[in-house]
Structure formats: C-alpha cells, structure tokens
Amino acid sequence: MSRQNLVNDLFDEAAADYDWVSGMMSLWSDRFYRRDALRRAGLQGGMQLLDVASGTGLMIKAALELGVDPALVTGVDPSRGMLAQNRKRNPVKLLEGRGEALPCADSMFDFVCMGYALRHVEDLSKLFGEFHRVLRSDGRVLILEITRPTNPAAMHLMRFYMQNVLPVVGWLRRRNRSTAKLMQYYWATIEECVPPSVIISALEDSGFRNVKRTTIGAVLSEYVAQR
C-alpha cells in the first residue's frame, strides 16, 4: 500500500475526532487563528475560494465566518471520511482529490488556502504548480503550517506534549486508537517537515511572486504569495 493510501486510511478512521485533536493541539485557539490568518492574507467576500486538503472543513468554516459566500467555495480532500465530516458542517462544493492533481479548471479561483497539510505532500512542485494553474491573475495563496522549532527546549517540550500527553488524553477521552495514531503521525511529520526556505523557493519556482513568510510563536508559519 502506498504512503498516500496509508495516510488516507488513517484520516478516514480518525475523521470523527479530528476537530477535537486540532483543538487539543492548539489549546483551542485554532478556530480564531484560522479566521484571522485568512483575513490578514486578504480573503474577502465575493472571492472564489479553493480550500486544498480541506479535511473536516475548519478553514472553510473560518472563511464563511468572514462573510465568503458558500456558493463560491470549493473544498478538495483525498479522504472520504474527512469529506463526510466536512459535509455535515459546510454547505459548499466538496470534491475528492489530491492537491497535486486538483479536479478543477484553469484560472477558476481568486484565493487558494491550505491549512496544516503541506507536510503530508510528497511533491511541492506539483502542488504549487496546481495552485498556480487554478488561480486567476493576481490570485492569492495562503498556506498555514507547523514548523519545527529551532530552540532545543521548545523542541523537547513539543515532542513530549505530542508523543506522550496528547495520545494518552486522546485515548482516555475518545477511545479511538486511530486518534492516538494520528497524533503520533503528526509528530513524525513535524519532526521531518520541509524547511521554510525550501517552501519559499518552491513557491517562487512555480511562478508565484511577493512570497512572504510570517511566524506566530515558535511553531506556526503563514506563507502568503500572489500569482
């Protein structure tokens, strides 16, 4: 079985608990942070929005709270379990698919976002090439990602929290082995995550301009670019 299929199975099995995991990982600040990040990146009502690796729809929910018309929103995700949870929350168009091969027409969107899924992607060039293809001229990209801490103490604390605290709490609260496995998988992807300089270079090589990275705290990165 391919890595992509293994990841899809893991997300399918843990989909019902994903929002709880996201809240635990962020100490319940994730909802407000997503909304503010979209606003800072320039998302406005009337824009045609594509949410890549949409998951349970947390980025879409934040966009709708900003006043974006649900009729103008599309979400794409390879996990059927995650899409099923997404449909319960958001009255938008949802498609099964991967970021590296988006099931969308050229020059269709004004804004593309991706929340905390970049480290699951194997080929950044294909992904960003697809972002560039589906965006209209001057369209914007926002990528939210967790970055590996450079401070050894912060790294140790984060490792302990995600490898020891979260899986135990997750098992006691949810009784779902896949939820604990998902949190352990998250740590593995963070520990091996792509350096910010590589992400910025890949965006620029794909034709994006005005590429900027903003950091929030020790581990949160926001990448903004324009087509």
State the main characteristics.
48% helix, alpha/beta, 227 residues, seven-stranded mixed sheet, Rossmann fold
Tally of separate domains: 1
Radius of gyration: 17 Å
Q: State the helix count.
A: 9
How far apart lie the N and C ends? Answer: 36 Å
Strand order of the largest sheet: 3-2-1-4-5-7-6
The helix fraction, in percent, is 40-55%
Short structural description:
With 227 residues, the protein is an alpha/beta fold. Helix content is 48%, strand content 21%.
Structural write-up:
The structure is a single chain. This protein is an alpha/beta fold and 227 residues long. The chain has one domain: Vaccinia Virus protein VP39 (Rossmann fold), CATH 3.40.50. Helices cover 48% and strands 21% of the residues. Helix 1 crosses helix 8 and helix 3 packs across helix 4. It is globular and about 45 Å long. The termini are far apart.
Task: Compile the SSE list and pairings.
Layout: H1 3-14, H2 18-25, H3 30-40, E1 49-52, H4 58-65, E2 73-77, H5 80-89, E3 93-96, E4 109-115, H6 124-134, E5 135-146, H7 152-174, H8 177-191, H9 196-205, E6 209-216, E7 220-226
Parallel strand pairs: 1-2, 1-4, 2-3, 4-5
Antiparallel strand pairs: 5-7, 6-7
Helix pairs in contact: 1-8, 3-4, 6-9, 7-8
